[in-house]
Design brief:
The protein has about 160 residues and is an alpha/beta fold. It has a single domain, classed as Rossmann fold (3-Layer(aba) Sandwich), CATH 3.40.50.360. The protein is about 30% helix and about 15% strand. It contains four helices and four strands; from the N terminus they run E-H-E-H-E-E-H-H. Strands 1, 2, 3 and 4 form a four-stranded parallel β-sheet that branches. Strand 2, helix 2 and strand 3 form a beta-alpha-beta unit. The radius of gyration is 20 Å and the shape is globular. The relative contact order is 0.14. It is an enzyme of class 1 (oxidoreductase). Pfam families: Flavodoxin_1. GO terms for molecular function: calmodulin binding; FMN binding; metal ion binding; nitric-oxide synthase activity.
Amino acid sequence: MHDYNISNLDKETLLLIVTSTFGNGDCPGNGETFKKSLFNLKQLHSKVRYAIFGLGSSMYPQFCAFAHTLDQRMVQLGASQISPTGEGDELNGQEESFLSWAVQTFKAACEAFKIRDRQNIILPKCYMSTETWNAEDYRLVNEAQPLEYIKGISI
């Protein structure tokens, strides 16, 4: 998060934020600058759509609080939420929660940007590999001890 230049926010049409919560609802260390910059903004000049997913542990009373803080601030700035803020609990199916949120958010983004069918979605070439995985070309080896890196890739 610390690499994001907040001045680019007005140029965004869609902003997806996935963030952890540190301690009792605080932002992670790399999110402090982003948070301060976001709270220093007066208003967005363009129509930004956004979605947020928070990662945390329900063991803490302020579960995913930073994600909800960002959500509230985006609304105050005039941004439009395209899907409800998601929560991933490390104690209870974090991966499943994220997958559900990601699918819902993708569908909402397609609707918001009027992307109706698969033919309109153009993926970068790096995501369209023609290679396939064939189980007969590989074998799994269960080791009682972790393999050394070089030994592991040379088997």
